[in-house]
Amino acid sequence: EPALVPASPWLGGRVLPAPRVTLGASGVQIEPASGAEPMWWIVRVKRGASWSVDVIPGAQTRYEPREVEGQPMDLIVVSPVDRLGTEGRPAFATPDGG
Known about the structure:
Layout: E1 20-24, E2 27-31, E3 40-47, E4 50-57, E5 62-63, E6 75-81, E7 91-93
Antiparallel strand pairs: 1-2, 2-5, 3-4, 3-6, 6-7
């Protein structure tokens, strides 16, 4: 399973704002909030009662969820993570555009 180093809040920093997330035919597009430079993205995908989690580099702006036969995506949640391991505000996207 993907994992991150535990956060180090005593070193300072700020909580990163939520990115802009859009879901399209080519996967998930992730656009950092203005001025935010995440080290990592946490990408959570919900299918039915199951969740999958991926950790991808902060420079990556496109994500393709793994296909699971017979289980459409219900929700995608993307959170930025700063260099200190602090998870920022999440953004939510659904296949129907919600």
